[in-house]
């Protein structure tokens, strides 16, 4: 439908108090809304997940690890400066990083900056077409990643408010999935924040498979859709990799009649990208796929996901699976029912619509 292409069709009223500022006391104690194929819903707790799946089903989740990529410093001889290291870029043969920078007008080519009280320095090399600043640092390779872990801050989403904009020690632990293993993400794959080792054991004991892939979440996850029509929106490219073992496990589960459940919209995008071969080599590459209503899912039968912002591409992806009107009706019920939204909020289990 033409309406499905208008970003205004993905709006809903969200009171500010519904935006979760802290995680639940226990990861798997978050609420879980079950959205069935026929559009009906049921209120559960995330620890109920094994009861909602069947032996032979398989969960595919994103093991990307969030870098402590926010650095506070100053321009050498000048004012305060802040960067968020997004991804490595060796385009001209030398190691550099693309960064979100503020204030952007201070990061002119050739200017030098110091961070971590002078223990790390950098030079601005220029900007790319998306406005990211290319920075060359005084440390390289693993030494730079170690410096981020030591001196950097967790890059919390802008809607999570903290005193002096500084994350707490709790954020350092909870804004990371317990199975995160592949460093490089600028934001957490938040649907996975609800899992615990004990919940994993219960899932496996019931015969539910768990496999992992990687999609390194970029800053585009926070960018609003500015185009009025989704036809004119371009996603930021993100690197994904589906290990061959995980791919075989998923395909074999489907052959045996099991259902494939993506944990998070990032996992869904990686799986559908691999199925389409959007990266050239089917199981890895850069993907800028925008999954929207009308998309014919190749692999994904269900989705574990958080409640997303109005007019966001993760919301559009969830609508592609459930149907836009069905999803927005469930969201209205979630607002009325006191569910918590966004990264530290509650979750949904969405099954693909009967006519999806």
Report on this structure:
A hairpin with a 5-residue loop joins strand 9 (120-127) and strand 10. Helix content is 22%, strand content 26%. The chain is globular, with a radius of gyration of 20 Å. It folds into two domains: 2-66 and 172-351, 3-Layer(aba) Sandwich (QueA-like); 70-152, Thrombin, subunit H (Beta Barrel). The chain has helices spanning 49-52, 141-151, 169-174, 197-205, 244-255, 265-276, 313-322, 324-336; strands at residues 31-35, 41-45, 58-62, 64-66, 70-75, 80-89, 96-102, 112-115, 120-127, 133-137, 182-185, 209-215, 238-241, 260-263, 284-287, 302-306, 347-351. The protein has 356 residues and is an alpha/beta fold. The strands form three sheets. The protein has a nine-stranded mixed sheet with strand order 2-1-17-16-14-3-12-13-15. Strands 5-6-7-10-9-8 form a six-stranded antiparallel β-barrel. The chain has a two-stranded parallel ribbon with strand order 4-11. It contains eight helices and 17 strands. The mean pLDDT is 92.
Describe the secondary structure blueprint for this structure.
Elements: E1 31-35, E2 41-45, H1 49-52, E3 58-62, E4 64-66, E5 70-75, E6 80-89, E7 96-102, E8 112-115, E9 120-127, E10 133-137, H2 141-151, H3 169-174, E11 182-185, H4 197-205, E12 209-215, E13 238-241, H5 244-255, E14 260-263, H6 265-276, E15 284-287, E16 302-306, H7 313-322, H8 324-336, E17 347-351
Parallel strand pairs: 1-17, 3-12, 3-14, 4-11, 14-16
Antiparallel strand pairs: 1-2, 5-6, 5-8, 6-7, 7-10, 8-9, 9-10, 12-13, 13-15, 16-17
């Amino acid at each position: 439908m033409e309406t499905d292409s208008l970003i205004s069709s993905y709006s809903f009223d969200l009171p500010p108090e519904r935006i979760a500022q802290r995680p639940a006391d226990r990861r798997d104690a978050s609420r879980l809304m079950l959205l069935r194929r026929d559009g009906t819903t049921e209120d559960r707790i995330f620890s109920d997940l094994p009861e909602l799946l069947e032996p032979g089903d398989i969960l595919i989740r994103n093991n990307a690890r969030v870098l402590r990529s926010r650095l506070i410093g100053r321009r050498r001889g000048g004012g305060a400066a802040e960067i968020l290291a997004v991804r490595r870029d060796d385009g001209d043969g030398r190691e550099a990083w693309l960064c979100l920078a503020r204030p952007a007008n201070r990061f002119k080519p050739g200017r030098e900056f110091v961070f971590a009280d002078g223990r790390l320095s950098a030079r601005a090399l220029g900007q790319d077409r998306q406005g990211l600043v290319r920075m060359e640092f005084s440390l390289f390779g693993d030494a730079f990643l170690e410096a981020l872990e030591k001196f950097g801050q967790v890059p919390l989403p802008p809607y999570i408010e903290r005193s002096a904009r500084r994350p707490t020690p709790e954020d350092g632990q909870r804004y990371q999935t317990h199975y995160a293993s592949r460093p490089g993400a600028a934001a957490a794959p938040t649907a996975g924040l609800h899992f615990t080792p004990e919940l994993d054991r219960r899932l496996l004991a019931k015969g539910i498979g768990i496999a992992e892939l990687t999609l390194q979440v970029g800053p585009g996850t926070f960018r609003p859709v500015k185009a009025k029509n989704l036809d004119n929106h371009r996603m930021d490219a993100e690197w994904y990799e589906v290990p061959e073992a995980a791919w075989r496990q998923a395909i074999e589960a489907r052959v045996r009649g099991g259902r494939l459940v993506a944990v998070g919209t990032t996992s869904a995008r990686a799986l559908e990208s691999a199925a389409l071969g959007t990266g050239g080599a089917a199981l890895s590459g850069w993907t800028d796929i925008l999954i929207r209503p009308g998309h014919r899912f190749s692999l994904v039968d269900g989705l574990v996901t958080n409640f997303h912002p109005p007019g966001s591409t993760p919301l559009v992806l969830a609508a592609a699976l459930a149907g836009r009107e069905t999803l927005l009706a469930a969201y209205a019920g979630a607002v009325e029912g006191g569910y918590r939204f966004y990264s530290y909020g509650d979750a949904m289990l969405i099954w693909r619509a009967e006519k999806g």
